[in-house]
Design goal:
There is one protein chain. With about 600 residues, the chain is mainly alpha-helical. About 65% of the residues lie in helices and about 0% in strands. The protein has 24 helices and no strands. The protein has helices at about 1-20, 40-45, 55-65, 70, 75-80, 85-110, 130-160, 195-200, 205-215, 230-250, 250-260, 265-280, 285-290, 300-315, 320-325, 335-370, 380-390, 395-430, 435-450, 460-505, 510-535, 540, 550-560, 565-580. Helix 1 (about 1-20) packs across helix 20 (about 460-505), helix 12 (about 265-280) packs antiparallel against helix 18 and helix 20 runs parallel beside helix 23. It is globular. The two termini are about 25 Å apart.
Length: about 600
Protein backbone atom coordinates (compact mmCIF):
# COMPACT_ATOMS: atom_id res chain seq x y z
CA UNK A 1 0.00 0.00 0.00
CA UNK A 2 2.82 2.42 0.90
CA UNK A 3 4.60 1.65 -2.38
CA UNK A 4 1.42 2.29 -4.34
CA UNK A 5 0.91 5.58 -2.51
CA UNK A 6 4.47 6.71 -3.26
CA UNK A 7 4.03 5.75 -6.92
CA UNK A 8 0.73 7.68 -7.12
CA UNK A 9 2.23 10.79 -5.54
CA UNK A 10 5.28 10.62 -7.82
CA UNK A 11 3.05 10.24 -10.88
CA UNK A 12 0.96 13.26 -9.86
CA UNK A 13 4.11 15.33 -9.37
CA UNK A 14 5.56 14.28 -12.73
CA UNK A 15 2.37 15.08 -14.62
CA UNK A 16 2.15 18.50 -13.04
CA UNK A 17 5.81 19.33 -13.69
CA UNK A 18 5.64 18.17 -17.28
CA UNK A 19 2.48 20.12 -18.11
CA UNK A 20 3.66 23.19 -16.18
CA UNK A 21 6.72 23.34 -18.42
CA UNK A 22 4.46 23.69 -21.44
CA UNK A 23 2.01 26.27 -20.04
CA UNK A 24 1.40 29.22 -22.37
CA UNK A 25 3.31 32.35 -21.40
CA UNK A 26 0.14 34.40 -20.84
CA UNK A 27 -0.69 32.43 -17.69
CA UNK A 28 0.68 33.95 -14.49
CA UNK A 29 -0.40 31.03 -12.38
CA UNK A 30 2.18 29.05 -10.49
CA UNK A 31 1.66 25.31 -10.90
CA UNK A 32 2.19 23.57 -7.62
CA UNK A 33 0.70 21.12 -5.22
CA UNK A 34 -1.68 22.93 -2.92
CA UNK A 35 -0.50 23.82 0.50
CA UNK A 36 -0.20 27.57 0.58
CA UNK A 37 -0.12 30.50 -1.83
CA UNK A 38 2.69 32.67 -3.16
CA UNK A 39 2.79 36.47 -3.22
CA UNK A 40 1.36 36.66 -6.74
CA UNK A 41 -1.64 34.56 -5.73
CA UNK A 42 -2.17 36.67 -2.62
CA UNK A 43 -2.08 39.88 -4.65
CA UNK A 44 -4.48 38.46 -7.23
CA UNK A 45 -6.91 37.41 -4.51
CA UNK A 46 -6.81 40.85 -2.92
CA UNK A 47 -7.77 42.47 -6.25
CA UNK A 48 -10.48 39.96 -7.16
CA UNK A 49 -14.08 41.16 -6.71
CA UNK A 50 -16.01 39.42 -3.95
CA UNK A 51 -19.64 38.97 -3.05
CA UNK A 52 -20.89 41.71 -0.74
CA UNK A 53 -22.27 39.06 1.59
CA UNK A 54 -22.35 35.30 1.99
CA UNK A 55 -26.09 35.42 1.34
CA UNK A 56 -25.44 36.88 -2.12
CA UNK A 57 -23.11 33.98 -2.87
CA UNK A 58 -25.53 31.35 -1.57
CA UNK A 59 -28.52 32.78 -3.45
CA UNK A 60 -26.48 32.86 -6.67
CA UNK A 61 -25.53 29.23 -6.17
CA UNK A 62 -29.12 28.18 -5.46
CA UNK A 63 -30.42 30.28 -8.34
CA UNK A 64 -28.08 28.60 -10.81
CA UNK A 65 -28.82 25.05 -9.63
CA UNK A 66 -32.62 25.45 -9.47
CA UNK A 67 -33.71 25.84 -13.08
CA UNK A 68 -36.47 24.98 -15.54
CA UNK A 69 -35.62 21.28 -15.32
CA UNK A 70 -36.85 21.23 -11.73
CA UNK A 71 -40.30 22.16 -13.02
CA UNK A 72 -40.62 20.44 -16.37
CA UNK A 73 -38.49 17.31 -15.99
CA UNK A 74 -38.28 16.07 -12.41
CA UNK A 75 -42.05 15.75 -11.78
CA UNK A 76 -42.54 13.66 -14.92
CA UNK A 77 -39.44 11.53 -14.26
CA UNK A 78 -40.65 10.87 -10.72
CA UNK A 79 -44.12 9.90 -11.95
CA UNK A 80 -42.76 7.66 -14.74
CA UNK A 81 -40.33 5.84 -12.45
CA UNK A 82 -42.53 4.71 -9.61
CA UNK A 83 -43.81 7.88 -7.98
CA UNK A 84 -42.70 8.12 -4.36
CA UNK A 85 -40.45 5.08 -4.81
CA UNK A 86 -38.28 7.12 -7.20
CA UNK A 87 -37.20 9.31 -4.30
CA UNK A 88 -35.09 6.43 -2.93
CA UNK A 89 -32.67 6.12 -5.89
CA UNK A 90 -32.75 9.90 -6.25
CA UNK A 91 -31.63 10.44 -2.66
CA UNK A 92 -29.00 7.69 -2.88
CA UNK A 93 -27.52 9.31 -5.99
CA UNK A 94 -27.69 12.71 -4.32
CA UNK A 95 -25.92 11.69 -1.11
CA UNK A 96 -23.16 9.54 -2.60
CA UNK A 97 -22.78 11.09 -6.05
CA UNK A 98 -24.13 14.57 -6.68
CA UNK A 99 -23.51 16.27 -3.33
CA UNK A 100 -19.82 15.23 -3.02
CA UNK A 101 -19.12 16.53 -6.55
CA UNK A 102 -20.87 19.81 -5.71
CA UNK A 103 -18.77 20.18 -2.56
CA UNK A 104 -15.58 19.36 -4.47
CA UNK A 105 -16.23 22.04 -7.09
CA UNK A 106 -16.91 24.59 -4.34
CA UNK A 107 -13.60 23.75 -2.67
CA UNK A 108 -11.62 24.08 -5.89
CA UNK A 109 -13.34 27.30 -6.96
CA UNK A 110 -13.06 29.09 -3.64
CA UNK A 111 -9.44 28.13 -2.95
CA UNK A 112 -7.92 28.92 -6.34
CA UNK A 113 -10.35 31.79 -7.06
CA UNK A 114 -10.21 31.43 -10.81
CA UNK A 115 -12.36 30.20 -13.69
CA UNK A 116 -12.82 26.81 -15.29
CA UNK A 117 -9.80 27.13 -17.63
CA UNK A 118 -7.11 28.68 -15.41
CA UNK A 119 -7.93 26.41 -12.49
CA UNK A 120 -6.14 23.58 -14.29
CA UNK A 121 -2.92 25.60 -14.36
CA UNK A 122 -2.94 25.25 -10.59
CA UNK A 123 -4.10 21.66 -10.27
CA UNK A 124 -3.29 19.41 -13.25
CA UNK A 125 -2.38 21.43 -16.36
CA UNK A 126 -2.20 18.46 -18.73
CA UNK A 127 -6.01 18.20 -18.66
CA UNK A 128 -6.57 21.93 -19.13
CA UNK A 129 -8.49 21.10 -22.29
CA UNK A 130 -11.42 20.21 -20.00
CA UNK A 131 -11.77 23.92 -19.24
CA UNK A 132 -12.01 24.79 -22.92
CA UNK A 133 -14.56 21.99 -23.42
CA UNK A 134 -16.69 23.44 -20.63
CA UNK A 135 -16.59 26.85 -22.34
CA UNK A 136 -17.73 25.33 -25.65
CA UNK A 137 -20.58 23.39 -24.01
CA UNK A 138 -21.78 26.54 -22.25
CA UNK A 139 -21.75 28.41 -25.55
CA UNK A 140 -23.90 25.73 -27.18
CA UNK A 141 -26.33 25.68 -24.25
CA UNK A 142 -26.64 29.47 -24.23
CA UNK A 143 -27.72 29.47 -27.88
CA UNK A 144 -30.94 27.59 -27.10
CA UNK A 145 -31.58 27.82 -23.34
CA UNK A 146 -32.23 31.55 -23.62
CA UNK A 147 -34.71 30.88 -26.43
CA UNK A 148 -36.76 29.00 -23.84
CA UNK A 149 -36.60 32.09 -21.61
CA UNK A 150 -37.76 34.09 -24.63
CA UNK A 151 -40.72 31.72 -25.02
CA UNK A 152 -41.60 32.28 -21.34
CA UNK A 153 -41.49 36.05 -21.89
CA UNK A 154 -43.75 35.61 -24.96
CA UNK A 155 -46.32 33.73 -22.86
CA UNK A 156 -45.96 36.19 -19.98
CA UNK A 157 -46.77 39.16 -22.22
CA UNK A 158 -49.59 37.22 -23.93
CA UNK A 159 -51.14 36.59 -20.52
CA UNK A 160 -52.01 40.29 -20.32
CA UNK A 161 -54.84 39.65 -22.78
CA UNK A 162 -57.40 42.47 -23.08
CA UNK A 163 -60.22 39.98 -22.56
CA UNK A 164 -60.73 37.74 -19.57
CA UNK A 165 -59.71 34.72 -21.68
CA UNK A 166 -56.17 33.63 -22.41
CA UNK A 167 -55.28 33.52 -26.13
CA UNK A 168 -54.85 29.73 -25.96
CA UNK A 169 -58.20 29.14 -24.29
CA UNK A 170 -60.26 28.59 -27.46
CA UNK A 171 -60.10 27.70 -31.15
CA UNK A 172 -61.54 31.06 -32.25
CA UNK A 173 -58.23 32.71 -33.10
CA UNK A 174 -56.89 33.47 -36.58
CA UNK A 175 -53.97 31.06 -36.15
CA UNK A 176 -56.15 28.08 -35.27
CA UNK A 177 -56.53 25.31 -37.83
CA UNK A 178 -59.54 23.11 -38.63
CA UNK A 179 -57.83 20.43 -36.52
CA UNK A 180 -58.21 22.50 -33.36
CA UNK A 181 -60.85 21.16 -30.99
CA UNK A 182 -61.69 21.96 -27.36
CA UNK A 183 -59.23 20.26 -25.06
CA UNK A 184 -61.91 18.04 -23.57
CA UNK A 185 -62.09 16.18 -26.88
CA UNK A 186 -58.45 15.79 -27.84
CA UNK A 187 -55.49 13.65 -26.91
CA UNK A 188 -52.57 15.47 -25.29
CA UNK A 189 -50.25 12.68 -26.39
CA UNK A 190 -50.47 13.89 -30.01
CA UNK A 191 -47.66 16.29 -30.84
CA UNK A 192 -46.71 18.58 -33.69
CA UNK A 193 -43.78 17.70 -35.88
CA UNK A 194 -44.66 18.93 -39.35
CA UNK A 195 -47.52 20.03 -41.58
CA UNK A 196 -48.16 16.45 -42.76
CA UNK A 197 -48.35 15.05 -39.24
CA UNK A 198 -50.52 17.93 -38.10
CA UNK A 199 -53.21 16.83 -40.52
CA UNK A 200 -53.36 13.39 -38.92
CA UNK A 201 -54.53 14.40 -35.46
CA UNK A 202 -56.52 16.87 -33.40
CA UNK A 203 -54.95 19.41 -31.11
CA UNK A 204 -55.84 21.66 -28.21
CA UNK A 205 -55.84 25.45 -28.46
CA UNK A 206 -52.77 25.47 -26.20
CA UNK A 207 -50.89 23.15 -28.54
CA UNK A 208 -51.74 25.26 -31.55
CA UNK A 209 -50.80 28.49 -29.80
CA UNK A 210 -47.32 27.12 -29.14
CA UNK A 211 -46.68 25.33 -32.41
CA UNK A 212 -48.59 27.54 -34.86
CA UNK A 213 -48.50 31.00 -33.30
CA UNK A 214 -45.24 31.07 -31.28
CA UNK A 215 -42.84 28.57 -32.87
CA UNK A 216 -44.51 28.20 -36.29
CA UNK A 217 -43.06 24.69 -36.35
CA UNK A 218 -45.87 23.51 -38.62
CA UNK A 219 -44.21 25.43 -41.46
CA UNK A 220 -41.13 23.17 -41.24
CA UNK A 221 -40.93 19.63 -42.55
CA UNK A 222 -38.17 18.61 -40.16
CA UNK A 223 -34.47 19.02 -39.47
CA UNK A 224 -32.76 21.23 -42.04
CA UNK A 225 -35.94 22.97 -43.16
CA UNK A 226 -35.44 26.17 -41.16
CA UNK A 227 -37.98 28.27 -43.03
CA UNK A 228 -38.47 31.81 -41.75
CA UNK A 229 -37.86 33.40 -38.37
CA UNK A 230 -40.43 33.98 -35.65
CA UNK A 231 -39.74 37.70 -35.14
CA UNK A 232 -41.83 38.14 -32.01
CA UNK A 233 -39.92 35.29 -30.42
CA UNK A 234 -36.67 36.92 -31.56
CA UNK A 235 -37.69 40.14 -29.80
CA UNK A 236 -38.52 38.26 -26.60
CA UNK A 237 -35.22 36.37 -26.70
CA UNK A 238 -33.23 39.57 -27.27
CA UNK A 239 -34.98 41.10 -24.27
CA UNK A 240 -33.80 38.11 -22.20
CA UNK A 241 -30.23 38.71 -23.36
CA UNK A 242 -30.62 42.37 -22.42
CA UNK A 243 -31.67 41.48 -18.88
CA UNK A 244 -28.72 39.10 -18.60
CA UNK A 245 -26.27 41.78 -19.73
CA UNK A 246 -27.58 44.29 -17.20
CA UNK A 247 -27.37 41.70 -14.42
CA UNK A 248 -23.84 40.37 -15.02
CA UNK A 249 -21.97 43.14 -16.85
CA UNK A 250 -20.58 44.66 -13.64
CA UNK A 251 -19.84 41.30 -12.07
CA UNK A 252 -20.84 40.02 -8.65
CA UNK A 253 -21.58 43.54 -7.39
CA UNK A 254 -24.61 43.72 -9.70
CA UNK A 255 -25.61 40.07 -10.05
CA UNK A 256 -25.40 39.62 -6.29
CA UNK A 257 -28.26 42.10 -5.91
CA UNK A 258 -30.36 40.79 -8.79
CA UNK A 259 -30.46 37.27 -7.34
CA UNK A 260 -32.26 38.56 -4.26
CA UNK A 261 -35.26 38.83 -6.59
CA UNK A 262 -34.67 36.11 -9.18
CA UNK A 263 -33.65 33.41 -6.68
CA UNK A 264 -36.41 34.05 -4.13
CA UNK A 265 -39.36 35.00 -6.36
CA UNK A 266 -39.82 31.44 -7.74
CA UNK A 267 -40.53 30.11 -4.25
CA UNK A 268 -43.14 32.78 -3.55
CA UNK A 269 -44.76 32.11 -6.91
CA UNK A 270 -44.59 28.33 -6.49
CA UNK A 271 -46.26 28.72 -3.09
CA UNK A 272 -49.12 30.71 -4.60
CA UNK A 273 -49.55 28.20 -7.41
CA UNK A 274 -49.50 25.26 -5.00
CA UNK A 275 -52.17 26.79 -2.77
CA UNK A 276 -54.31 27.34 -5.83
CA UNK A 277 -53.55 23.92 -7.26
CA UNK A 278 -54.43 21.81 -4.22
CA UNK A 279 -57.76 23.61 -3.83
CA UNK A 280 -58.89 22.66 -7.34
CA UNK A 281 -61.17 19.67 -8.00
CA UNK A 282 -59.21 16.63 -9.17
CA UNK A 283 -55.96 17.75 -7.49
CA UNK A 284 -55.91 14.70 -5.22
CA UNK A 285 -55.98 12.35 -8.19
CA UNK A 286 -53.05 14.16 -9.79
CA UNK A 287 -51.01 14.03 -6.59
CA UNK A 288 -51.80 10.33 -6.27
CA UNK A 289 -50.14 9.67 -9.63
CA UNK A 290 -47.14 11.68 -8.51
CA UNK A 291 -46.60 10.28 -5.02
CA UNK A 292 -48.00 6.75 -4.68
CA UNK A 293 -44.93 4.46 -4.77
CA UNK A 294 -44.51 1.51 -7.13
CA UNK A 295 -41.81 -0.42 -5.28
CA UNK A 296 -41.20 -2.93 -8.06
CA UNK A 297 -39.76 -0.07 -10.16
CA UNK A 298 -36.69 -0.03 -7.92
CA UNK A 299 -35.52 -3.24 -9.58
CA UNK A 300 -35.37 -1.58 -13.01
CA UNK A 301 -31.97 -0.24 -14.08
CA UNK A 302 -33.58 2.56 -16.08
CA UNK A 303 -35.00 4.07 -12.87
CA UNK A 304 -31.53 4.42 -11.36
CA UNK A 305 -30.21 5.78 -14.65
CA UNK A 306 -32.91 8.45 -14.74
CA UNK A 307 -32.21 9.36 -11.12
CA UNK A 308 -28.52 9.79 -11.83
CA UNK A 309 -29.04 11.79 -15.02
CA UNK A 310 -31.63 14.07 -13.48
CA UNK A 311 -29.46 14.74 -10.44
CA UNK A 312 -26.28 15.29 -12.43
CA UNK A 313 -27.79 18.04 -14.58
CA UNK A 314 -30.07 19.44 -11.90
CA UNK A 315 -27.22 20.31 -9.51
CA UNK A 316 -25.29 22.00 -12.31
CA UNK A 317 -21.99 20.21 -11.73
CA UNK A 318 -19.55 20.21 -14.62
CA UNK A 319 -20.79 23.45 -16.18
CA UNK A 320 -18.00 25.51 -14.62
CA UNK A 321 -20.56 27.81 -13.01
CA UNK A 322 -20.16 26.44 -9.48
CA UNK A 323 -16.40 27.02 -9.57
CA UNK A 324 -16.89 30.47 -11.13
CA UNK A 325 -19.45 31.59 -8.56
CA UNK A 326 -17.46 30.24 -5.60
CA UNK A 327 -14.27 31.89 -6.93
CA UNK A 328 -15.72 35.23 -5.77
CA UNK A 329 -16.24 33.97 -2.20
CA UNK A 330 -14.20 35.17 0.73
CA UNK A 331 -11.33 32.75 1.28
CA UNK A 332 -12.75 31.45 4.58
CA UNK A 333 -16.39 31.19 3.45
CA UNK A 334 -18.09 28.06 4.80
CA UNK A 335 -18.47 26.10 1.57
CA UNK A 336 -19.40 22.92 3.45
CA UNK A 337 -22.53 24.67 4.65
CA UNK A 338 -23.18 26.13 1.19
CA UNK A 339 -22.96 22.70 -0.43
CA UNK A 340 -25.45 21.18 2.00
CA UNK A 341 -27.91 24.09 1.78
CA UNK A 342 -27.81 24.54 -2.01
CA UNK A 343 -27.90 20.81 -2.76
CA UNK A 344 -30.75 20.11 -0.36
CA UNK A 345 -32.69 23.16 -1.57
CA UNK A 346 -32.37 21.95 -5.13
CA UNK A 347 -33.81 18.52 -4.33
CA UNK A 348 -36.64 19.93 -2.20
CA UNK A 349 -37.52 22.42 -4.93
CA UNK A 350 -37.83 19.61 -7.46
CA UNK A 351 -40.21 17.75 -5.16
CA UNK A 352 -42.14 20.93 -4.37
CA UNK A 353 -42.51 21.77 -8.07
CA UNK A 354 -43.92 18.29 -8.62
CA UNK A 355 -46.69 19.02 -6.16
CA UNK A 356 -47.55 22.21 -8.04
CA UNK A 357 -47.50 20.55 -11.45
CA UNK A 358 -49.45 17.38 -10.62
CA UNK A 359 -52.12 19.09 -8.54
CA UNK A 360 -52.86 21.27 -11.57
CA UNK A 361 -52.64 18.34 -14.01
CA UNK A 362 -55.15 16.51 -11.82
CA UNK A 363 -57.49 19.44 -12.26
CA UNK A 364 -57.00 19.36 -16.03
CA UNK A 365 -57.77 15.65 -15.98
CA UNK A 366 -60.94 16.41 -14.05
CA UNK A 367 -62.27 19.13 -16.36
CA UNK A 368 -61.43 17.21 -19.55
CA UNK A 369 -62.71 13.90 -18.14
CA UNK A 370 -59.51 12.14 -19.23
CA UNK A 371 -57.10 9.95 -17.22
CA UNK A 372 -54.13 11.73 -15.66
CA UNK A 373 -51.64 9.64 -17.61
CA UNK A 374 -53.16 10.82 -20.90
CA UNK A 375 -52.49 14.49 -20.21
CA UNK A 376 -49.13 14.45 -18.42
CA UNK A 377 -45.99 15.15 -20.47
CA UNK A 378 -42.41 16.21 -19.80
CA UNK A 379 -40.14 18.97 -21.01
CA UNK A 380 -41.33 22.10 -22.82
CA UNK A 381 -44.62 20.41 -23.70
CA UNK A 382 -45.48 20.31 -19.99
CA UNK A 383 -44.97 24.02 -19.31
CA UNK A 384 -46.00 25.40 -22.71
CA UNK A 385 -48.90 23.07 -23.62
CA UNK A 386 -50.34 21.06 -20.73
CA UNK A 387 -49.95 23.57 -17.89
CA UNK A 388 -51.24 26.55 -19.94
CA UNK A 389 -54.24 24.42 -20.92
CA UNK A 390 -54.96 23.88 -17.22
CA UNK A 391 -54.47 27.57 -16.46
CA UNK A 392 -56.99 28.46 -19.16
CA UNK A 393 -59.68 26.49 -17.30
CA UNK A 394 -59.19 28.30 -13.98
CA UNK A 395 -61.07 31.31 -12.69
CA UNK A 396 -58.82 34.40 -12.94
CA UNK A 397 -56.80 32.48 -15.51
CA UNK A 398 -54.87 35.55 -16.64
CA UNK A 399 -53.55 36.19 -13.13
CA UNK A 400 -52.41 32.61 -12.59
CA UNK A 401 -50.83 32.53 -16.03
CA UNK A 402 -48.88 35.73 -15.29
CA UNK A 403 -47.59 34.25 -12.03
CA UNK A 404 -46.63 30.93 -13.62
CA UNK A 405 -44.67 32.37 -16.52
CA UNK A 406 -43.04 34.97 -14.30
CA UNK A 407 -41.80 32.04 -12.24
CA UNK A 408 -40.39 30.36 -15.37
CA UNK A 409 -38.65 33.58 -16.40
CA UNK A 410 -36.95 34.00 -13.02
CA UNK A 411 -35.92 30.35 -12.93
CA UNK A 412 -34.45 30.55 -16.41
CA UNK A 413 -32.66 33.85 -15.87
CA UNK A 414 -30.97 32.68 -12.68
CA UNK A 415 -29.54 29.61 -14.38
CA UNK A 416 -28.51 31.68 -17.38
CA UNK A 417 -26.66 34.10 -15.08
CA UNK A 418 -24.59 31.17 -13.80
CA UNK A 419 -23.91 29.75 -17.25
CA UNK A 420 -22.74 33.10 -18.59
CA UNK A 421 -20.65 33.68 -15.47
CA UNK A 422 -18.83 30.40 -16.13
CA UNK A 423 -18.09 31.64 -19.66
CA UNK A 424 -17.07 35.15 -18.69
CA UNK A 425 -15.00 34.24 -15.62
CA UNK A 426 -13.21 31.49 -17.53
CA UNK A 427 -12.21 33.86 -20.34
CA UNK A 428 -11.34 36.82 -18.12
CA UNK A 429 -9.06 34.80 -15.84
CA UNK A 430 -7.35 32.83 -18.58
CA UNK A 431 -6.56 35.79 -20.82
CA UNK A 432 -6.14 38.50 -18.13
CA UNK A 433 -9.10 40.56 -19.35
CA UNK A 434 -10.70 41.44 -16.01
CA UNK A 435 -10.47 45.20 -16.60
CA UNK A 436 -12.45 44.75 -19.83
CA UNK A 437 -15.28 42.75 -18.28
CA UNK A 438 -18.19 44.79 -19.66
CA UNK A 439 -16.80 44.62 -23.19
CA UNK A 440 -16.21 40.89 -22.95
CA UNK A 441 -19.75 40.33 -21.64
CA UNK A 442 -21.17 42.38 -24.52
CA UNK A 443 -19.13 40.51 -27.13
CA UNK A 444 -20.07 37.09 -25.73
CA UNK A 445 -23.77 37.96 -25.59
CA UNK A 446 -23.71 39.29 -29.17
CA UNK A 447 -22.02 36.09 -30.36
CA UNK A 448 -24.56 33.93 -28.51
CA UNK A 449 -27.44 36.02 -29.85
CA UNK A 450 -26.38 35.39 -33.44
CA UNK A 451 -25.73 31.75 -32.54
CA UNK A 452 -29.35 31.52 -31.36
CA UNK A 453 -30.80 32.38 -34.78
CA UNK A 454 -31.10 28.74 -35.98
CA UNK A 455 -33.10 28.02 -32.81
CA UNK A 456 -35.46 30.90 -33.58
CA UNK A 457 -36.46 29.68 -37.02
CA UNK A 458 -39.58 27.68 -37.83
CA UNK A 459 -37.51 24.49 -37.73
CA UNK A 460 -35.52 25.67 -34.72
CA UNK A 461 -36.94 23.08 -32.33
CA UNK A 462 -35.44 20.29 -34.43
CA UNK A 463 -32.07 22.04 -34.31
CA UNK A 464 -32.34 22.48 -30.54
CA UNK A 465 -33.12 18.79 -30.10
CA UNK A 466 -30.02 17.78 -32.05
CA UNK A 467 -27.65 20.20 -30.30
CA UNK A 468 -28.96 19.35 -26.85
CA UNK A 469 -28.79 15.59 -27.43
CA UNK A 470 -25.37 15.34 -29.04
CA UNK A 471 -23.31 18.42 -28.23
CA UNK A 472 -24.45 19.02 -24.65
CA UNK A 473 -26.04 16.11 -22.78
CA UNK A 474 -23.72 13.33 -23.91
CA UNK A 475 -20.62 15.53 -23.98
CA UNK A 476 -21.17 16.99 -20.54
CA UNK A 477 -21.44 13.56 -18.91
CA UNK A 478 -17.97 12.66 -20.21
CA UNK A 479 -16.56 16.08 -19.25
CA UNK A 480 -17.79 15.71 -15.67
CA UNK A 481 -16.23 12.25 -15.48
CA UNK A 482 -12.83 13.42 -16.76
CA UNK A 483 -12.92 16.46 -14.48
CA UNK A 484 -13.75 14.39 -11.41
CA UNK A 485 -11.03 11.81 -12.08
CA UNK A 486 -8.47 14.56 -12.76
CA UNK A 487 -9.22 16.34 -9.49
CA UNK A 488 -9.43 13.20 -7.34
CA UNK A 489 -6.68 11.03 -8.82
CA UNK A 490 -4.56 13.63 -10.64
CA UNK A 491 -4.53 16.56 -8.26
CA UNK A 492 -5.12 14.18 -5.39
CA UNK A 493 -7.58 13.76 -2.53
CA UNK A 494 -4.87 14.62 0.01
CA UNK A 495 -4.38 18.00 -1.62
CA UNK A 496 -8.14 18.59 -1.69
CA UNK A 497 -8.27 17.82 2.02
CA UNK A 498 -5.35 20.18 2.71
CA UNK A 499 -6.79 23.18 0.89
CA UNK A 500 -10.18 22.63 2.51
CA UNK A 501 -8.51 22.69 5.94
CA UNK A 502 -6.55 25.81 5.02
CA UNK A 503 -9.81 27.61 4.21
CA UNK A 504 -12.14 26.24 6.90
CA UNK A 505 -9.69 25.16 9.58
CA UNK A 506 -11.27 21.74 9.93
CA UNK A 507 -10.60 18.27 8.56
CA UNK A 508 -12.72 16.74 5.84
CA UNK A 509 -14.65 13.75 7.16
CA UNK A 510 -13.98 10.24 5.95
CA UNK A 511 -17.38 10.26 4.22
CA UNK A 512 -16.35 12.89 1.68
CA UNK A 513 -13.04 11.18 1.02
CA UNK A 514 -14.67 7.81 0.36
CA UNK A 515 -17.26 9.41 -1.91
CA UNK A 516 -14.64 11.30 -3.91
CA UNK A 517 -12.43 8.25 -4.31
CA UNK A 518 -15.05 5.59 -5.01
CA UNK A 519 -18.76 6.41 -4.96
CA UNK A 520 -18.76 9.62 -7.02
CA UNK A 521 -16.58 8.21 -9.85
CA UNK A 522 -18.74 5.08 -9.84
CA UNK A 523 -21.85 7.26 -9.99
CA UNK A 524 -20.68 9.31 -12.98
CA UNK A 525 -19.20 6.30 -14.77
CA UNK A 526 -22.44 4.36 -14.41
CA UNK A 527 -24.51 7.27 -15.73
CA UNK A 528 -22.15 7.68 -18.69
CA UNK A 529 -22.04 3.98 -19.59
CA UNK A 530 -25.77 3.37 -19.22
CA UNK A 531 -26.59 6.54 -21.14
CA UNK A 532 -24.41 5.58 -24.08
CA UNK A 533 -25.54 1.97 -24.11
CA UNK A 534 -29.24 2.92 -24.05
CA UNK A 535 -28.97 5.89 -26.39
CA UNK A 536 -30.02 5.71 -30.03
CA UNK A 537 -29.32 8.00 -32.93
CA UNK A 538 -32.01 10.62 -33.48
CA UNK A 539 -32.51 9.41 -37.04
CA UNK A 540 -33.59 6.07 -35.54
CA UNK A 541 -35.80 7.53 -32.84
CA UNK A 542 -37.54 10.13 -35.02
CA UNK A 543 -36.90 9.17 -38.66
CA UNK A 544 -39.80 11.27 -39.92
CA UNK A 545 -38.09 14.55 -38.95
CA UNK A 546 -34.41 13.70 -38.33
CA UNK A 547 -32.38 12.43 -41.32
CA UNK A 548 -29.02 10.74 -40.92
CA UNK A 549 -27.41 14.12 -41.64
CA UNK A 550 -28.72 15.40 -38.30
CA UNK A 551 -26.77 12.72 -36.45
CA UNK A 552 -23.66 13.39 -38.53
CA UNK A 553 -23.78 17.09 -37.66
CA UNK A 554 -24.57 16.29 -34.04
CA UNK A 555 -21.65 13.90 -33.68
CA UNK A 556 -19.35 16.50 -35.25
CA UNK A 557 -20.51 19.06 -32.71
CA UNK A 558 -19.92 16.53 -29.96
CA UNK A 559 -16.41 16.06 -31.31
CA UNK A 560 -15.87 19.83 -31.19
CA UNK A 561 -16.83 19.94 -27.52
CA UNK A 562 -14.61 17.00 -26.51
CA UNK A 563 -11.63 17.62 -28.81
CA UNK A 564 -9.85 20.16 -26.54
CA UNK A 565 -9.20 17.47 -23.91
CA UNK A 566 -6.95 15.16 -25.98
CA UNK A 567 -5.61 18.02 -28.13
CA UNK A 568 -4.33 20.02 -25.17
CA UNK A 569 -2.90 16.92 -23.51
CA UNK A 570 -1.11 16.06 -26.74
CA UNK A 571 0.15 19.63 -27.00
CA UNK A 572 1.61 19.39 -23.50
CA UNK A 573 3.34 16.09 -24.23
CA UNK A 574 4.68 17.21 -27.62
CA UNK A 575 5.95 20.56 -26.37
CA UNK A 576 7.59 18.87 -23.41
CA UNK A 577 9.49 16.58 -25.77
CA UNK A 578 10.66 19.58 -27.78
CA UNK A 579 11.88 21.22 -24.58
CA UNK A 580 13.71 18.27 -23.08
CA UNK A 581 14.33 15.85 -25.96
CA UNK A 582 12.59 12.95 -24.24
CA UNK A 583 9.36 12.03 -22.47
CA UNK A 584 11.09 11.91 -19.07
CA UNK A 585 10.21 14.68 -16.67
CA UNK A 586 13.35 16.53 -15.52
CA UNK A 587 14.08 16.23 -11.85
CA UNK A 588 13.80 19.54 -10.07
Amino acid sequence: TNSAARFSNRTQSQLMKMAAATEPTHSTAVTKVAGGSDEADAERRSKRPQWDSQVDALLSLIGFAVDLGNVWRFPYICYRNGGGAFLIPYLVCFIFGGLPILYLELIIGQYFQTGCISVWSKTLPIVKGVGYSVIIVNLFIATYYNVVIGMSIYYFVSSFAPSDKLPWASCDNQWNSPNCVPQAHTNFEDSFTSVDLMLNGTYTPAQEFLNVKVLKIVQSSGFGDFGGVSWLLVACTISAFGIIYIAIARGVKSSGKVVWVTATAPYLLLGCLLIRGVTLPGAAEGLKFYLVPEWDKLLELSVWRDAGQQLLFSLGTGFGAIMALSSYNKFSNNIHRDALISGTTNCLTSFFAGLVVFSTIGYLSHVTNRPVDSVVQEGPALVFEVYPAALAEMPLSNLWSILFFLMLITLGLDSSFGGFEALITGLLDEFNLSEYRQRVVAIVIIIVTFGSLPSLTYGGQFWIGMVDFHACTNSLTLIVLVQLLAFVYGFGVNNIVRINKEMLGSEVSWFWRVCWLFFSPLFISSVAVISFVDSSLMSHLFPEVYPVLADVIGLCLMGVTLAPVPLYAGYCLYTHRLHYGSWDVPSS
